[in-house]
Write a structure and sequence with these properties.
alpha/beta, Rossmann fold, GMP Synthetase, Chain A, domain 3, 3 domains, 5-stranded antiparallel beta sheet, 21 helices, 25 strands, long-chain fatty acid-CoA ligase activity, nucleotide-binding, Long-chain fatty acid--CoA ligase
């Protein structure tokens, strides 16, 4: 169970089997069934991985063939992913929110010859794409449901594929994976993209293993990681496993650490799942932290002046980079306020790691003030995906994303772009040599992010190169910064700002539903978001929130005008990516005329 074990692993399957052999009958994968958490041991998981791998190999699939995986977060996701690789094949994870058109693009582009799908619900948009594509020869259903005639595609049920002689299957897998090297392709992860059709990122085994080794080093050196395995780290998996962030940090990092993975029942039950599971590590996106912060602040506000004073003092101390003192008031904060907040996260969280999108520093400071260690990571699918992460050992500074992880080299180009080199860099975009050549130059991954490195070696990101707003006077404005500050206001749930080649910044705003409901009640109005937005008094209340933000912005950053959106930005209306980043091109296409009108008259 030493770091060197997986730092030198030849492939991801070998890493997993090493851990399974060492941990045997200890519990590994947990899912809630019939109201109780039920687990698979490491040995049971390894048996199913090997049996499924041999079933896939027996279907006539050949090394390098692609297998699409369409499933919610569940034990079978991990088993399928490892089995695909153990069969010498390549996993193609896809989002469960994909439309038929999305599935069709990925099937056509990847040339997948087999598909594993979890349920009838997820099969509904998938099956027409399978039927129209014609390349898929095998479809495996995890849950039993009625399957239509799919032409030349053979259908299989999961239970029949994970039974048999596990020992024989293991011997066959061991022989096969002996030939799988770190440089061999492990998966094609299609970037959801904030614009354009998704591209398949070719992640090799070494890219993910490099990420895992770097992250595990942080756990070994900065946190109390028990490498004996007697007190395993507990992960709660709820971000999509089809996203590179959760795939590496939420699946392969727990495997490397000999940890446990509990699969959440979904966002609507996340709070109760956290209390039940009591995770030690949480891998989260910034949007969730924003929501949690808002809820906590509202609850504290209702508890009266004393609670609000304690919160304000804790935030002031954290903002100034100081620690609580021995003063009685600080002891009250440490003994009363902080434990209540920590208990909402199960009471034993060592670290919450934010990634997938930029984190507003105020959010990080808030959780730090509450006594929770919040680390911001940085990277992209093309880098495994983790490039860097905040480390307590180096010093947590919330406007940075920490130093590069072990095995990663970072430099800043002349124009400020962050360049990355190391084993974590993808092999390229699948069947897209032109885009690959534009992205990887002389071995350096051109991230498209702008930033610099501070005096402690921590990366500071200032903006996305392609998202930077350049106004009509040539001034640069960071849209993420302004949007982040807007959405910290209780009145505003979501925002997008524009202003490229324009005289000033304008915004598209989604009011916060809870705040709008309270405003309607207080002002004797019926709660109807569309009708409220037509009221001058409602607009003035939102304008006050915008003005509060403007007071902390420079002249060129101030939001001069704004319009309301018709509905929230969601994954379902394709205005957010599955990792909860806004799709600017979609919003501009839908609201272009409305935004243009803000510059007239």
């Amino acid at each position: 169970m030493q770091l060197a074990d997986f730092d030198a692993s030849p492939n991801l399957v070998a890493l997993f089997l090493q851990r399974a052999d060492a941990l045997g009958d200890q519990p590994f994968l947990f899912a809630k069934r019939d109201g109780a958490w039920q687990s698979l041991t490491w040995r049971q998981t390894a048996d199913q991985v090997c049996l499924l791998a041999e079933a896939l190999a027996g279907m006539g699939l050949t090394p390098g063939d692609r297998v699409m995986l369409v499933a919610d977060n569940r034990p079978e996701w991990c088993i399928a992913d490892l089995a695909i690789m153990a069969a010498g094949l390549v996993t193609v994870p896809t989002y469960i929110t994909n439309t038929e058109r999305d599935h069709q693009h990925i099937l056509d582009n990847s040339g997948a010859r087999a598909v594993i799908v979890a349920s009838a619900k997820l099969a509904k948009p998938l099956l027409p794409a399978v039927l129209h594509g014609g390349a898929v020869r095998h479809l495996i259903a995890i849950e039993s449901f009625k399957l239509p005639q799919l032409g030349q595609t053979d259908c299989h049920e999961w239970p029949a594929l994970v039974t048999g002689d596990a020992a024989a299957a293991r011997r066959a897998v061991d022989a096969r994976i002996a030939g799988i090297k770190r440089q061999d392709l492990a998966c094609l992860i299609y970037t959801s993209g904030t614009g354009g059709a998704p591209r398949g990122v070719m992640q090799h085994h070494g890219a993910i293993l490099c990420n895992v080794a770097g992250a595990a080093t942080i756990f070994a050196e900065d946190f109390a990681w028990d490498q004996s395995g007697r007190t395993p780290e507990v992960f709660l998996s709820f971000l999509p496993l089809s996203h590179a962030y959760e795939h590496s940090a939420g699946q392969y990092l727990p495997i490397a650490l000999g940890g446990q993975i509990h699969y959440s029942e979904g966002l609507e039950k996340l709070a109760s799942n956290i209390e039940e599971v009591r995770p030690t590590v949480m891998v989260v996106v910034p949007r969730l932290f924003e929501v949690l912060r808002t809820r906590i602040m509202k609850q504290v506000e209702k508890q009266g002046r004393v609670a609000n004073y304690l919160m304000d003092r804790a935030l002031t101390i954290a903002t100034r980079g100081r620690r609580l003192t021995d003063l009685p008031i600080d002891l009250v904060i440490d003994k009363l306020l902080r434990p209540k907040i920590r208990q909402r996260f199960g009471g034993r969280v060592k670290a919450m790691v934010s990634g997938g999108a930029p984190l507003n520093p105020e959010i990080g400071t808030f959780f730090q003030a509450m006594g929770l260690t919040l680390l911001q990571g940085y990277g992209q699918t093309e880098s495994g995906p983790i490039v860097s992460c905040n480390r307590p050992k180096v010093g947590l500074k919330m406007d940075t994303v920490g130093p590069p992880m072990a095995g990663v080299t970072v430099k800043i180009a002349a124009d400020g772009e962050i360049l990355v080199q190391g084993e974590l860099v993808m092999q390229g975009y699948w069947r897209n040599p032109e885009e690959t050549a534009r992205t990887i130059i002389d071995g350096w991954l051109h991230t498209g992010d702008i930033g610099h490195i501070d005096d402690k070696g921590r990366i500071v990101i200032t903006d996305r190169k392609k998202d930077m707003i350049v106004n009509d006077k040539g001034d640069n404005v960071s849209p993420q910064k302004v949007e982040g500050m807007l959405t910290l206001q209780p009145e505003i749930a979501q925002a997008m700002v524009v202003g490229d080649k324009r005289p000033y910044i304008a915004g598209l705003i989604v009011p916060d539903a809870e705040w709008a409901l309270a405003w309607a009640r207080d002002n004797g109005e019926k709660y109807d978001m569309a009708a409220l937005q037509d009221l001058p008094a409602f607009r003035s209340a939102v304008r006050e929130a915008v003005d509060r933000v403007n007071r902390d912005l420079s002249v060129i950053e101030k939001v001069r005008q704004f319009a309301f959106a018709d509905e929230p930005f969601t994954i379902e209306n394709e205005e957010m990516t599955p990792s909860l980043k806004i799709r600017r091109h979609k919003l501009k296409a839908r609201y272009g005329d409305r935004l243009d009108a803000l510059y007239k008259g």
